[in-house]
Amino acid sequence: MSDYRSAHARPSKNERRAEAREKARQLRQQHEKRERRNRILLQGGIALAAVAVVAIIALVLVNSVRPAGPGPRNMASDGIRIGEGFVAVTTPALPADARPVVSEANAAGVVDIQIVLDYLCPICGEFEATNGEFIRTLVESGAATIEYRPIAILTSRSAGTEYSLRAANAAACVANSSPDSFFEFNERLFAEQPDEGTPGLDDSRLIEIAAAAGAGSTVIEECITERTFESWVKAVTDRAQTGPLAIRDAEVDRIEGTPTVFVNGLKFEYTYPFDQGEFAQFVLQAAGDEFSTNPTPTPTPTPTPTP
Residues 6 or more apart from 143 whose CB is under 8 A from it? Predict the structure, then answer.
């Protein structure tokens, strides 16, 4: 009996205290382990959050200083100027969001014609059909320069293909890499101008037109398909509608629509439908007395005396 009671006797008070202390020690150790683990996780989370915050700040800073995109060479004024023999005036490339530079003044007697246009704009197409040959004659002879300023205000009107934007980008590609081909490229684009509301010409056809105009190269092909100057076209379009316009002596700060035509800084207020005689008369009036359709005429040979 005494052995049974001894084997199953209740722990003494001291023993119970010892057990409680041991249990408390174990619980404390477990708690400390959890605390250490939580601190490590918390510190790691804070570090990750800090890295994320730094990354976000860096991204914001990079985006705030990143250029809006490249601009094409030979279009520092937001347009390309073409002179005698259809040779383009070369200018350096500017960032898309850079302030455009006014083109240098023409020599005395050489008319300065500037056209803001959209390659999907049907009225632009009609203006080209009516006055294109007259402009060609003036430019070819050196009597005038023509500065084409493509923009894209009708981007949403081509069944989702953004033809207006793509065509203006293609024009910038030609101006950048083959500027002396621009005059013919511009003519050919209008010769095949699609109707509003249609998908318009695809990139492959734009590349073919560029090649037919003398601007065939892999550089231009990639420029067209990759929309290299898309951001520039958007920036130019915004500037045309809100200002400033880099046009010498112009009295209009922004355009209301396309085509907008300036001759020696004076806006051509045309009537519609177009009449070639009206534009020719405006050119004569804007140019004044110094204008000549042939500023450098071929000298008349001196007759040889008859013996």
Answer: 109, 110, 111, 137, 291, 292, 293, 294, 295
Chain centroid to CA 13: how far?
A: 89
70 pLDDT band, cuts 50/70/90, is: confident
The count of other CB atoms within 10 Å of the CB of residue 238 is 13
Q: How does DSSP classify residue 95?
A: B
pLDDT, mean of residues 296-303: 36
CA 261 from centre of chain? 22
Report the DSSP beta bridge partners of residue 58: none
Q: Is 306 exposed, middle or buried (0-12, 13-18, 19+ CB in 10 A)?
A: exposed
Orientation angle between helical segments 122-141 and 182-191, nearest 10 degrees: 150
Q: Which of 142, 113, 133 shows the shortest CA–CA distance to 268? A: 113
- Record the pTM: 0.74
